[in-house]
Amino acid sequence: MTHLSTRRKVLSSANTEALRRRIPVRTEQAVAGPEGRAATLASPFLTFTESGEYFVFDGSSGVMSRIGKLVYDILNLSPIYDIYGEEDLVKLRELLTPKYAEAEIDEAVGAIQDFNRQGFLEHKHKIYELFDEKYESAQNGYFGGCLWLNLSHDCNLRCTYCFGNGGDYGHSRMLMTRETAKACIDYWYAHLNRDQKLFDVAFFGGEPLMNQEVLFFAVEYINQLMSGHSGRVRYNITTNGTILNDKLLRLFKDNDFLVSISIDGIEKIHNRNRPFASGRGSFGRILQNIAELKREFSPLSSQITVRKRDIPFLTPSVEMLWEAGVNRVHSNLVFHEDEIYEYEDFAEYEQQIGRLAAMTFANIMDDKPYTYHGLVRLAGRIHKKKFSDSCFLWQNGAFIFTPEGDAYRCYRYIGNPEYKLGSIQDSGLALLDNRFKKERVSKCSACWAQLYCGDGCAYENEIYTGDPEVPAEAWCAKTKIMLKQSLKFYARMQVECPEKAKQYFNWS
Ligand code: SF4
Ligand code: SF4
């Protein structure tokens, strides 16, 4: 068992202090009351309004409920007034009686207490049970995760924010050989839980299409190995979209690939952020290739990486990609120790996401297949109560191999020797035994967003706080914005078009 605190990389204290000063802690409506009140409302929840209705999202159970205005008002006051304390209840009645009758207030307080007694609005820490289950299951030799091959540690672009240092992850540029690919695939196959219905295989880089020969080999070899199984292999590839030909198109189509193209939206922003190694802009080439892919694939997905300075242009960037024929546009903010976000950045980000939520809602109403998809996908997970226990690092979520055959649990830690788990060349490579245990984080345990955040991203935490287990304020801010907007989107669908919501969230 390995505990990450023994592997901490500590940023310079000056840098960390600068971040603390410049990123303000947002005060949410979420409630985290005093310690030792487990049976009271010292539990995490978020109240919000949408389409003229009032809602509470219970962060400890993942349940979103429509509530009356009076319950909404009491919940918002409950961090200050303890609804289980006689004196506080008197004060609460005094505050609310101008608007409500005393009997009404007592009835609403009773309803909230009942809700509380039924197990809602109380700390359960369900996310840790889920992480623990996955951690324990590895002891039985079970591997249900993804095979992830970094086919190429080389790239033809030089993106300004690349965490892989232009594709080579700080080491020499190289491509995976057939022999290494075969050894990695054999290792994965030998440890696979063959009873599964779905087997995920991901190709990544650098730019994976700089190593087409081994891509073709890997797909053919995996298909051959899996031909006797009833389950399906789901291939996905993340590409910068600059390389495409008929053979690749056929490979993607015949094998039902999920193709995700990285493109940053508006031409000027994209070319500034993602130039070719020569310095020339890559936008035109990618747009041509999107048109080719569009002829064969639907839905088509893309990913925008948003720099701090480009946050105000997120909406026009998404619109531009919809117009180019990309159906599902995702985005994420750049997280890098030089990218320091301030309150105004997150205020702007929230406005942009709100706008995209409204545009996505309008598209769905008009049966147009264009969505800002991170938001829709999260709403779908809220609908199905599919919580966020998927960080590869804390479980056997993936066998990740570099071109040399080095094994990691998280692709973003590649090149950091503290996170290397071994090599495919090691005769005793035991990836199922070599895993990291998720520790309890007190800040996250009191947070309404925990079930859909999973205590954040260890890698990004480490960038900003120097410790993978100490949440970064910037992460918390962007995650809560996205989750709140997804909850509002989901609530809006339920209030304004319940039939469509039912139909939509069964498949999205
Ligand atoms: S990382 Fe931040 S947003 Fe996520 S659960 Fe922890 S405190 Fe909440
Ligand atoms: S540490 Fe972050 S990037 Fe790495 S697997 Fe977990 S969530 Fe993903």
Automatic annotation (TrEMBL):
Gene3D superfamilies: Aldolase class I (3.20.20.70). SUPFAM superfamilies: Radical SAM enzymes. Its cofactor is [4Fe-4S] cluster. One of its GO terms (molecular function) is oxidoreductase activity. Keywords: 4Fe-4S, Iron, Iron-sulfur, Metal-binding, S-adenosyl-L-methionine. It comes from Paenibacillus faecis. InterPro entries: 4Fe4S-binding_SPASM_dom, Aldolase_TIM, MoaA_NifB_PqqE_Fe-S-bd_CS, rSAM, rSAM_sf, Sulphatase_maturase_rSAM. Residues 141-375 form the Radical SAM core domain. Pfam families: Radical_SAM (PF04055). This is Radical SAM protein. It comes from the Bacteria.
